[in-house]
Design brief:
Number of strands: 18
Strand content: 25-35%
Largest sheet: 9 strands, mixed
Distance between the termini: 18 Å
Oligomer: single chain
Low-confidence stretches: none
Mean pLDDT: 96
Bound molecules: pyridoxal-5'-phosphate, 2-OXO-4-methylpentanoic acid
Shape: globular
Order of helices and strands: EEEHEEEHHEEEHEEEEHEHEEEHE
């Protein structure tokens, strides 16, 4: 597809890497293309980063027809820029689109526009340790009518933001509140899709946790509030005795690409990994009897984030003396080593621009 390029009049100054945080600064340009049932995807363009103008009746503003993805571009020691498993994000985006009745983007088209956009903005990929260029593809329904129905018109866009760590703790352990009141998703709902509505529904519990000094909540299943699901912006894994356990993909949690990569790394190193139901009672018992040896979250923004404390029904449990454990550190070193090109990518996960 032809991608029109409108260059920004003035390019912004690149930020100091030590001030990045997550998702606060945006690059000079953004990618956009439009969809209609009659024309399919059209009008692909890279344009100066700017506000988006919407009709007040636009579907996304009323009925939440929105999906998104998150992936990163990394600068390697030789200065090249590479993506991590981009096709996984593209495939997951189409799964989300299917659930939300938004249009599919052919995989080769999505890959072409993503890589073209990153090539234009690649100078924004920071080089300091632990930093990257976070890419946020998103799609929203844009019909200019109030009827509730599958979307006929949509917009797909990609914005980019140079980032440091997602949590202020960086690689230091975070504290997580186990939520037993609100639920995030139910089977048959949209939990497996990466759609904005899931996050909107999560905010109330997240706010309550933050007020009590916790970084995020760990969700329990939406029916019995019994089984562990995932954390607000990451999947979760535990080392209980010599077993690595992570909640199975039941339909109500996001099939994380970092989760999948952790499982592949762990299996390649001979660890036993179980994707299964894990109840809060089993976790509480393991915390009480000392068999919970490590806990960590994994996600694109969060990378590998050790969990040093859980709070459940006002009881606080410290994990591994609040320190990063051996398996967590190994996963962090292996994944970030591959992503930043410091160790050989024997899995074939990286794509050099
Ligand atoms: N779970 C939720 C709710 C998320 O928002 C994310 C972040 O994308 C993840 C899990 C981890 O997914 P991934 O590893 O693909 O980034
Ligand atoms: C990501 O890790 O890419 C995410 O989308 C998490 C986000 C909600 C901050």
């Amino acid at each position: 597809m032809d991608i029109k390029f409108v260059k920004a009049d003035a390019l912004k100054e690149k930020p100091d890497s030590s001030t990045l945080g997550f998702g606060k600064i945006f690059t000079d340009h953004m990618f956009m293309m439009d969809y209609s049932r009659e024309e399919g995807w059209h009008d692909a363009r890279i344009v100066p980063f700017a506000n988006i103008s919407l009709h007040p009746a636009s579907t996304v503003l009323h009925y939440g027809s929105e999906i998104f993805e998150g992936l990163k571009a990394y600068r390697t020691a030789d200065g090249t820029v590479q993506l991590f498993r981009p096709m996984e994000n593209i495939r997951r985006m189409n799964v989300s689109a299917d659930r939300l009745c938004l249009p599919q983007i052919p995989e080769d088209l999505a890959f072409e526009v993503l890589t073209e956009f990153v090539k234009v903005e690649q100078d924004w990929t920071p080089s300091a340790s632990g930093t990257s260029l976070y890419l946020r593809p998103f799609m929203f329904g844009n019909d200019e009518t109030l009827g509730v129905h599958a979307v006929h018109n949509a917009t797909f866009a990609i914005i980019a933001s140079p980032v440091g760590s997602y949590y202020k703790e960086g690689i230091n352990p975070v504290k997580i509140m186990i939520e037993d009141e609100d639920v995030r998703a139910v089977r048959g709902g949209t939990g497996f899709a990466k759609c904005g509505g899931n996050y909107a529904a999560s905010n109330r519990a997240g706010e309550r946790a933050e007020k009590k000094g916790y970084s995020q909540v760990l969700w329990l299943d939406g029916v019995e509030r019994k089984y562990i699901e995932e954390v607000g912006a990451m999947n979760v894994m535990f080392k209980i005795g010599d077993e690595i356990v992570t909640p199975m993909l039941s339909g109500s949690i996001l099939p994380g690409i970092t989760r999948k990569s952790c499982i592949e790394v762990l299996k390649s190193k001979g660890y036993k990994v179980s994707e299964r139901l894990i109840s809060i009672d089993e976790l509480a018992e393991a915390m009480e009897n000392g068999t919970l040896l490590e806990a960590w979250g994994c996600g694109t923004a969060a990378v590998i984030s050790p969990i040093g404390e859980f709070c459940y029904k006002d009881v606080k449990y410290t994990v591994n003396n609040g320190e990063i454990g051996e398996v967590t550190q190994m996963l962090y070193d292996t994944l970030t080593g591959i992503q930043w090109g410091n160790i050989e990518d024997s899995f074939g996960w990286t794509y050099k621009l």
